[in-house]
């Protein structure tokens, strides 16, 4: 299936509608009808477009209440998270997104990639802390742009970043840890390779708007952020049955219609490829010093909660909805009441290398917040329980999972 087949036609591209073009709020009758369709998980793309562009702040809360009830009906009063470590394999990246501080265009010679010795030390410490997930991230196509990156790889007998990531994935499995790999937009042979050593994989879709790749827009200098390559990678993950994490990024100049189309594309690909998506991350942009967008305000938390709720009301029931807790300090309870079911990875050892200025909450904090809200907090693996139950992973990963008895009888972490 070509990538363009899954993107709906564009309704509008304007980032912020002028007041004279803003649509009237939903009528009482319209609101009642949309809330009923949300309860039934029967919203259409056109419904979603209308709801996002015409719902008032007051009425947005009603969608949050519906989403929270849907989550309770689907999953019970259970919230989950994964105890992980975060290993950036390389911060060299050929993309230059306007909001990113992960990318490092200049690094010390010989430090282009994390060394195997450093990874081994981190894995040893992780084992002592009963970590089960190792999150590997990379800059995208470092060796395509930086000669020193290719030189490092060749010196260490690797042909590409992906080959090195595969090797590190093997090391994880050998010691009883499960890799979750986010190595950017991938080609088919790379997807097939990494699947063998990944409990799960992921890629932020971010947004399907081609406009955001144009001059002066957030992804203008980021060739791998073109929706074509993000969608092709999602389709490959579906084709090869990779347990998958996707996500949208709010506050980067997207229009309401862009958000609706992004959610619709995720739903469409998931359904066409047998239900391979585990979760969607709804992530809010945060301004960072030293970036083009350092003075851009983050999205209104009420808007983020509203989109979280719509994701729960629109996407298939088996897809979990997650928000990063370190980016939403002080709003955790509100997000629980907007329909989330998962807090994502939380590390007792490493920082969030994408948002280093925002430390992870302690697990005890998440436990207290969850319990006060009337929920049980369970620790999961990078492979969600339904994927554990159906053995939806490679033979190599499953052997590690069984040998080290990483899952309990319900598919959660046994550690």
**Average pLDDT taken over every residue:** 94
CATH superfamily: Aldolase class I
Please indicate the count of domains. Answer: 1
Q: First CA to last CA: what distance?
A: 40 Å
Radius of gyration, CA atoms, in whole angstroms:
21 Å
Task: Summarize the helices and strands and which ones pair or pack.
Elements: H1 28-39, H2 45-54, H3 57-75, E1 78-90, H4 116-128, E2 133-138, H5 142-145, H6 147-155, H7 161-174, E3 178-182, H8 188-195, E4 200-202, H9 227-239, E5 244-250, H10 256-272, E6 277-284, H11 301-314, E7 320-322, H12 332-336, E8 342-346, H13 363-372, E9 376-379, H14 385-389, H15 395-403
Parallel strand pairs: 1-2, 1-8, 1-9, 2-3, 3-4, 4-5, 5-6, 6-7
Helix pairs in contact: 1-3, 2-10, 3-11
Give a short synopsis of this structure.
The protein is of the alpha/beta class. It has helices spanning 28-39, 45-54, 57-75, 116-128, 142-145, 147-155, 161-174, 188-195, 227-239, 256-272, 301-314, 332-336, 363-372, 385-389, 395-403; strands spanning 78-90, 133-138, 178-182, 200-202, 244-250, 277-284, 320-322, 342-346, 376-379.
Report on this structure.
This protein has helices spanning 28-39, 45-54, 57-75, 116-128, 142-145, 147-155, 161-174, 188-195, 227-239, 256-272, 301-314, 332-336, 363-372, 385-389, 395-403, and strands at residues 78-90, 133-138, 178-182, 200-202, 244-250, 277-284, 320-322, 342-346, 376-379. The chain is an alpha/beta fold. Strands 1, 2, 3, 4, 5, 6, 7, 8 and 9 form a nine-stranded parallel beta sheet that branches. Helix 11 (301-314) links the parallel strand 6 and strand 7 (320-322). The two termini are 40 Å apart. The relative contact order is 0.16. Residues 9-21 have low confidence and may be disordered.
